[in-house]
Please model this.
Amino acid sequence: MRPYLQFAWLGFRRQITYRAATLAGFATNVFFMLLRAAVMQALYAGRTELAGVSLQQALTFTVTTQALIVFTSLWGWWEVMDQVNTGDVAIEMLKPVHYYGTWLARDYGRALAGLLLRGAPILLVGALFFPLTIPQSAERWLATIAALLLSGWVSFSWRFLTNLAAFWMPDARGFGRMIFALSQALSGFLMPMALLPDWLQTICYLTPFPMLITTPLEIFLGVAQGAAVLHSLALQIAWGVALTIAGLLVLRAATRKLIIYGG
Model:
């Protein structure tokens, strides 16, 4: 366990090193938060509720989704793919630690740093401009934290699996960009899930992507109550297990391919 905690610390420290990039990213996030909030207010057109979602909840959704961009790496993550392309993956796999576990620990460190340096400040700025819906009980805060931790696991697992395509594709970034675009569209990032047509919601929930954004936000906003919270967390765990198993199986196949090519 200790080596993985060290890897998590390295991931955290690496994320906080680039201060100028962090400030630039924060400013960009705030700009798009205000822009998206204006669009949301125009969508409601003076109404206080739409499809069971209040304007205050919709604005909270807008602010918090912007705060979670770095945490979930929703716009792209190419670390493993880059290692495969440079050949450094062979060196990494010789280390006496599990390759998947190493990257998972690093990613949790990175995600935590992003949540503290970008996510929390965005929430604070959003609270200055809009009335936000904040959990009022310790139980809901604990459920939200649990959902975020599971969201990080699901997010990493599908990104890791996507990056492994580099073992079979000379330039897998095109494939990766397509998957990342799907994740943005189907996660509920652009619009609260309740405001989407029923048929589109069904399609979204056939994928793991709502587990990244919609699930933790529905718990945070109080949309999910009681047994629905436990069901949502269980669904996150199920997707996390399924994607982890898939990633390990593909990694095993990729390792065999690497050994064959390396002699």
The beta strands are 49-50, 53-54. The first helix runs from residue 2 to 17.
